[in-house]
Amino acid sequence: MDVIVRKWRPDTESSVPPYEQIRLRILDLAASGALAVGARLPSVRSLALDLGLAANTVARAYRELEQAGIVVTAGRSGTAVASGGDVMGAQVAAAAESFAAVVRDLGVPGPKALSIVTAALERGAAR
């Protein structure tokens, strides 16, 4: 998920520890909607490599986010942004997952699937 590292790196000169900078970055992205409910985060190793940090540093940030209910970790499924009590967001994320599964199963190209969704949303708004 390049949205976490795009135009951002931990400030090595800061008095704020790197794990806390990562935690705050992900928290800000989740709160702003840049990381949607259900969005998968990069693996600990992958993000650590991208940021040039130790895996334990990223793992601590993820652990603290999980303890706060911001993310959920499901073993091999990885870490994803939690609903955090956002029932509507969770329902939309679940519907999006279902839609994406159908699109993949049918082999529909992503841009075509998105245009179908856009048209459905526009039809709904016109009612």
TrEMBL record:
Domain of life the protein comes from: Bacteria
GO molecular function: DNA binding; DNA-binding transcription factor activity
Protein name listed in UniProt: GntR family transcriptional regulator
InterPro entries given in the database record: Tscrpt_reg_HTH_GntR (IPR000524), WH-like_DNA-bd_sf (IPR036388), WH_DNA-bd_sf (IPR036390)
Organism: Arthrobacter livingstonensis
Domain HTH gntR-type: from-to ranges: 16-84
UniProt entry keywords in alphabetical sequence: DNA-binding, Transcription, Transcription regulation
Pfam families: GntR (PF00392)
